[in-house]
């Protein structure tokens, strides 16, 4: 199997509730490393993103631990790599401060990596690709029936003068969510995405009417909700999280959820069991600090992992 992964890389500085601070790779590194751990060495992962030229060699050396990652789509740019400071407060809320946002990944970097089985686009910064580039991807793979999974992430966000983020609606949200395999967002992203401030069920109805097959809304310790196109009706499935009392750091859990779903789906072609797998893996990821322990996800390698009971 071959996966294409598109989104911005970050260097994360995470301030935990106990006052401790963690520094680790973040952003697209979470789904990239997660896929590398879920998949076999014979599978291939094709990441497409840029990194500051002073950080390039050390990052490529770091990725050598994953034989299933082809690094040819990772390119250098002048200037620093995006830095993100995350400060958590009680209730799972956080303040995010983003500096040095990378330029959008251009179509010319992406098009040669679309001979693939599935495409994961993760809008880490909200500026990872343009809407026009997403349209180019859709047109390129339309007749090949390659599924596209879009994690909305920071698409409905702005960068303020002090580099903090705040939510703002996306006027073109229907074009973004058109003709995809699945779309993922958390509760806050779902609330702020549309200018109409659609409620969850109304949003699901609109998304699935756009010829998109599924909508995942992740809900932290409450698990997630999967909405599926059921041939003229919408099927809803509420899924539980696992071992929530052990959660210590939610950073990257949504990204890992997306990677887990995609890895399982491309092998099973089953949305429900793939969503259950994603919930279990994301819950486990919440027990890890930043991305430093992400290789513990190898326990979920799909060649060894038993199917999750319904």
Describe the structure.
It is a single chain. 28% of the residues lie in helices and 26% in strands. The protein has 310 residues and is of the alpha/beta class. It has one domain (2-294): UDP-N-acetylmuramoyl-L-alanine:D-glutamate ligase (3-Layer(aba) Sandwich). The longest helix has 16 residues, at 253-268. The radius of gyration is 18 Å and the shape is globular. The chain contains nine helices and 15 strands.
Shape: globular
Q: State the share of residues found in helices, binned by percent.
A: 25-40%
Query: DSSP helix count?
Result: 9
- Assign the CATH superfamily: Ribokinase
The strand order across the widest sheet is: 5-4-1-8-9-12-13-14-15
* CATH fold annotation: UDP-N-acetylmuramoyl-L-alanine:D-glutamate ligase
Average pLDDT figure: 92
From the helix content, strand content and strand pairing, which structural class follows? alpha/beta
Indicate the radius of gyration in whole angstroms: 18 Å
SSE pattern, N- to C-terminal: EEEHEHEEEHEHEEEHEHHEEEHH
Please tell me the total number of domains: 1
Poorly predicted runs of 5 or more residues: none
Topology:
Blueprint (H helix, E strand, L loop, with lengths): L1 E5 L2 E7 L5 E7 L1 H10 L5 E9 H11 L10 E4 L5 E6 L5 E6 L7 H4 L7 E5 L8 H11 L6 E4 L5 E3 L5 E3 L5 H4 L5 E5 H7 L6 H9 L5 E5 L5 E6 L4 E6 L13 H16 L2 H15 L25
Parallel strand pairs: 1-4, 1-8, 2-6, 4-5, 8-9, 9-12, 12-13
Antiparallel strand pairs: 2-3, 6-7, 10-11, 13-14, 14-15
Structure, briefly:
This protein is an alpha/beta fold and 310 residues long. The protein contains 9 helices and 15 strands.
């Amino acid at each position: 199997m071959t996966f294409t992964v598109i989104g911005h890389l970050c260097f994360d500085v995470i301030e935990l509730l106990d006052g401790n601070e963690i520094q680790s790779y973040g952003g697209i590194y979470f789904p990239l490393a997660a896929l590398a751990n879920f998949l076999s060495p014979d599978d291939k992962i094709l990441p497409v993103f840029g990194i500051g030229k002073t950080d390039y060699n050390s990052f490529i050396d770091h990725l050598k631990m994953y034989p299933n990652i082809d690094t040819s789509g990772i390119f250098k740019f002048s200037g620093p790599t995006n830095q993100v400071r995350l400060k958590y407060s009680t209730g799972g809320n956080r303040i995010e401060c983003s500096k040095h946002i990378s330029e959008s990944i251009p179509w010319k970097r992406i098009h040669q990596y679309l001979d693939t089985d599935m495409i994961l686009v993760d809008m880490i910064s909200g500026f990872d690709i343009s809407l026009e580039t997403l349209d180019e991807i859709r047109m390129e793979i339309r007749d090949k029936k390659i599924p596209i999974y879009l994690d909305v992430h920071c698409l409905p966000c702005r960068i303020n003068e002090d580099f903090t983020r705040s939510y703002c609606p996306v006027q073109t949200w229907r074009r973004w969510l058109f003709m995809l395999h699945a779309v993922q967002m958390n509760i806050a992203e779902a609330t702020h995405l549309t200018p109409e401030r659609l409620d969850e069920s109304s949003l699901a109805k609109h998304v699935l009417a756009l010829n998109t097959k599924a909508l995942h809304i992740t809900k932290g310790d409450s698990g997630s909700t999967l909405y599926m196109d059921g041939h003229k009706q919408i099927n809803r499935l509420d899924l539980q999280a696992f071992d929530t009392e052990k959660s210590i750091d939610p950073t990257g859990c949504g990204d890992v959820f997306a990677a887990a779903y995609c890895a399982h789906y491309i092998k099973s072609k089953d949305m429900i069991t793939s969503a259950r797998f994603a919930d279990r893996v994301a819950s486990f990821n919440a027990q890890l600090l930043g991305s430093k322990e992400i290789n513990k996800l190898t326990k979920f390698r799909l060649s060894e992992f038993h199917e999750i009971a319904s």
